[in-house]
Amino acid sequence: MIPINLEINVIDAFTNKVFGGNPAAVIITDNWLNEPLMQKIASENNLSETAFLVNNGSGIYAIRWFSPIKEIDFCGHATLASAFVLFGKFSDLNSLDFTAKTVGELTIKKLDSGKIQMSFPNTKPELIESYPRELLKGLSIKPKEIHKNAQAYFAIYDSEDDVLNVETNNDFIKKLHPLDVVVTAPSNSDEFDFISRYFWPANGNNEDQATGSIHTGLAPFWSERIGKSQLKAFQASKRGASIECEVAGDRVLISGNGVQYMTGTISL
Length: 268
Description:
Diaminopimelate Epimerase, Chain A, domain 1; 2 domains; 268 residues; alpha+beta
């Protein structure tokens, strides 16, 4: 077997400081590695996601995301991390185009502020009256409303304290597969419009540190409730994450900072 050396970068996404936000690994190759190998690398990395990218020759990068246990349809923070790496390699670039099988073409911009802005599909959830009993059994505090999109159940609370204090029973949350659970409420802080926490034990780990993809549903939901199109969000995980959102019709613009944590080589 011919040895393979792969450059790997680990970026902390949706934060301006190391050890904040959510770390993602980024690996860029000329051709796709085989799926079992990509999954093994993601499992070995044991981060929320590892992003794999291939340049299709026309300047558009195809992107795929793997959690430690499976390939994921859509990941925002690893997309930000990937753009951070590419903008670092090609300092003259101010925009990038990614494509993904499940979410189509994504335009990524480097803003004057230093933040990275990603254009994603609007995935606003819909109110549901009927939902699995495992959802309420999985949450220690009963939500006021339940909404749903293709990614998750949205448990809506009136109080930020409920979001901060809610505990999950992951034996029940796992039974909601393939959907995950996000809990959310208006923020008490003048700095943020809403807060959230994200639980996905069936698809990745117990609680995600920063979840860009779910904000494509949270932002349009809170945009209607609050009456503004530009919102600032805080994901109240252990590491914490600041996420800027703008609802623009059928798109949601998600912006945040990234910080380089590590670069190295995978030797296979």
